[in-house]
Amino acid sequence: MDWTVTEVMVKPVVTSAPGQSVKMARRQMRQAHIRHLPVLDEENLLAGIVSDRDLREARDDHLPVSEIMTRPVFVLSPDMPLRLAARIFRERRIGAMPVLDGRVLVGIVSIVDVLRVLSE
User: Fold this and answer.
1) Which of 51, 82, 95, 102 is most buried when burial is the number of CB atoms within 10 A of its CB?
2) pTM of structure
């Protein structure tokens, strides 16, 4: 079967604001059992992404996530073939990518999601 990103993306997406503290982001990720947290600005547009590794390496719990987030962010479109998304994961060596429909965040896909579908 030719899967698309829409069929495997996780939604709704747990997100953070740029001013949220590292400590609060850690707590949020732990409670939601996730490893990647897209950061949305005040207009609900994607500003960056924070991984569990970013949070572990942060030296100050009170830093805002905007200080440690990755940007620019590689993103996927909902109709992208999953095989192409898998290639991007492999080539870029990243763990998750937000899914944007235009400029709107509609989901997130992690390498674990891709592997789950491909192993079925």
Assistant:
1) 82
2) 0.93
